[in-house]
Amino acid sequence: MAPRVVLVGAMGAGKTTVGELVAQALEVGFRDTDHDIEAAERRDVQEIFVDSGEEYFRDAEVRAVSAALAEHSGVLALGGGAVLRAETRQALVGH
Questions:
Q1: 81 contact partners, CB below 8 Å, separation of at least 6
Q2: Is the CB of residue 62 less than 8 Å from the CB of residue 88?
Q3: Rg from Cα positions in the chain
């Protein structure tokens, strides 16, 4: 299983908005890794950055992206800084 579309871009670029529209057009599900992290952590991205730091968030992001790439077959939006990590860039090879 692999996503049909993976959206990567700067924070606030519209990945979620566009991703939801593309998913609707393709009649597939939409997933956002920032939302996955927020659900797992039970706090929003800003809180994670403030309370636990960027390194902690980026570690969670690598795990979230890897899981989503393995589990999701629809449209996937990554957080704005997801590609800052080599592990994430490597996981995206072939997608």
A1: 11, 58, 61
A2: yes
A3: 13
Torsion-angle region of 11 (φ positive above 0: left; ψ -120 to 50: alpha; else: beta): beta
Tokens of 52: 């636990």
Q: Phi and psi (nearest 5°) for 81? A: -105, 10
The tens digit of pLDDT for each residue in 55-92 reads 999 999 999 999 999 999 999 999 999 999 999 999 99
- Structure-block tokens of residue 64: 């979230």
Q: Which residues pair with 32 in a beta bridge?
A: 77
Residue that has been written with the tokens 């579309």 in this structure: 5
Q: Please report, in angstroms and rounded to a whole number, the separation of the first and last CA atoms in the chain.
A: 11
